[in-house]
Design a protein that fits this description.
414 residues; Rossmann fold; alpha/beta; eight-stranded mixed β-sheet; six-stranded parallel β-sheet; 2 domains; globular; 41% helix
Length: 414
């Protein structure tokens, strides 16, 4: 099968689309990627890419076409321009880069923004290929949830755009079951809508990884690790409130491994609140390094702001945390909280509940290592049952086969 991936984000940025592409190639499919210049989450083009872009023209055998776009940089206006510039770049340069190429399916990776669907729909039309959109972030709901857009009129316009894209796709996949109702409000044909969750990369199953040398060893210290995007949705004000409540607890420290739009704010707040001896910002590292940071963790933390839209989301890190076999501290509502609680893999408090998070930290820190190990083991077992990578990869290829030409290859070799 010949698969065209349209994604604003791709390697060397850390997203699950990298793992998908690697899997498809391993199964003998041909993959081409249309993307932008790597600048997520810091907002600046990666130095290694800027110094020699030619070394990033292929990934595991997939050909990569990168279109002109503005970087994210700082500020809401610049982010909007980043989104729009990718749309323009992909719509103008995409057909040129892909001239003469034929595809059996166009796959859209949409963690945000939904505008990535515009060039995908155009290319699907030009190439006469069905478009499959994987919705990982709900628009326009997320725009309202994080306060980026407050105008009801503008939100309605975004809703019309979402409807335009959904109704021109062959399939629309939702990352949680709770997403499906929202998608149905904008997609006229309910038969197009399917449930397709995220998974955890197999590398998180590693248990004998040496600890990351960037983190100092600490005897008899309960270490909490946050890994991933440091953004508005993750509610760092509440996390820092919880850390402040435990300022005098000598046996607890917090490690933040990642980067994002709120990193500078978090860094300033750690200084202002005099939490530098408790909260450590480690920085951004490739996903391949994450197990070495998880090795320091007595618990992993997942958080989302209190909002009905976020309650429908299972943060991608939850699957990784579960498969890593570490107990989880959850400060979130809805689907994400239900996954942790169903697995018996940790302690959960409501989104935005800093006091509840502080109490959960104290409770988990007081547990025996054996009790925490049992929590982590239950989480891993749950992940292997509910978010099995191989089974989900088969399911996605079955979706492709459902909408692609009859003579296209199906799953390919395992």
């Amino acid at each position: 099968m010949k698969i065209l991936v349209v994604s604003q984000y791709f390697w060397p940025e850390n997203f699950r689309i990298n793992d998908l592409v690697k899997e498809w190639l391993g199964r003998g499919h041909e993959v081409t990627v249309l993307t932008g210049k790597p600048n997520y989450p810091g907002g600046q083009v990666f130095p290694e890419f800027a110094s020699d872009p030619t070394t990033f023209g292929h990934f595991e055998g997939a050909k990569i076409h990168r279109v002109p776009m503005l970087t994210r940089s700082q500020g809401a206006l610049r982010l909007v321009l980043n989104y729009l510039s990718f749309v323009l770049g992909a719509c103008i340069w995409g057909p040129w880069h892909l001239r003469g190429d034929r595809f059996d399916v166009v796959f859209v990776f949409e963690p945000s923004p939904i505008t990535v669907g515009i060039p995908a729909v155009l290319l699907g039309k030009l190439k006469r290929a069905p478009v499959v959109l994987w919705v990982l972030d709900l628009w326009p709901e997320t725009l309202a949830a994080v306060g980026v857009v407050r105008s009801p009129h503008l939100l309605r316009l975004v809703g019309h755009l979402v409807s335009f894209i959904y109704n021109r796709c062959a399939l629309v996949l939702g990352q949680s079951r709770a997403f499906l109702g929202s998608i149905a409000r904008y997609c006229r044909d309910g038969s197009k809508i399917r449930y397709f969750p995220s998974w955890a990369e197999n590398l998180f199953q590693q248990t004998d990884v040496p600890k990351a040398p960037e983190v100092p060893e600490a005897e008899n210290i309960f270490t909490i690790v946050f890994a991933g995007n440091v953004g508005d949705a993750q509610d760092f004000p509440a996390i820092l409130d919880a850390a402040e409540r435990l300022r005098d607890h000598d046996g607890v420290r917090w490690l933040i491994v990642g980067d994002g739009r709120r990193s500078a704010w978090v860094r300033d707040e750690v200084v202002r609140r005099r939490l530098g001896h408790r909260v450590f910002l480690i920085g951004r590292f490739p996903v391949e390094r994450m197990p070495s940071f998880y090795a320091h963790a007595d618990a992993l933390i997942a958080s989302l702001k209190p909002d009905p839209t976020f309650s429908m989301t299972i943060p991608g890190k939850v699957q990784s945390y579960l498969l890593a076999g570490k107990p989880i501290l959850g400060m979130l509502d809805g689907e994400g909280a239900a996954a942790i609680e169903s697995a018996g893999a940790g302690l959960v408090c409501p989104a935005g509940d800093a006091r509840g998070l502080a109490r959960a930290v104290e409770k988990m820190a007081a547990m025996t290592p054996a009790e925490r190990h049992a929590m982590g083991a239950r989480g891993r077992q749950f992940a292997e049952q509910e978010f099995d990578r191989a089974r989900l990869m088969d399911r996605l290829l079955d979706f492709f086969a459902e909408v692609s030409p009859a003579d296209a290859p199906r799953r390919g070799p395992r």
